[in-house]
Amino acid sequence: MAATIYFLCALTSLACFLFLFRGWRASRARLLFWSAMCFGAMTVNNFLLVADKLLFPTADLSSWRLVMALTAVTLLLFGLIWDEE
């Protein structure tokens, strides 16, 4: 059951990334770009979670997951601060 939840979370963040990136390409709104980059990093974070818990249960990928989560939040925060419109 946990494997299904992990995988669905990864697919949901990937879908959000794709929809936001497609919206950015159509409108060129910078906030859409930074939101898409945030969800791209969250997608990597979720796939690292799948790899950590399911594919490599003996390895500890928590540091990499934390780095990707920090990167995602930093990208969105940068986009929110930098976008003055």
Automatic annotation (TrEMBL):
The chain crosses the membrane at residues 5-24, 31-51, 63-82. It comes from the Bacteria. InterPro entries: DUF5985. Keywords: Membrane, Transmembrane, Transmembrane helix. This is Uncharacterized protein. It comes from Ramlibacter rhizophilus. The lineage of its organism: Bacteria, Pseudomonadati, Pseudomonadota, Betaproteobacteria, Burkholderiales.
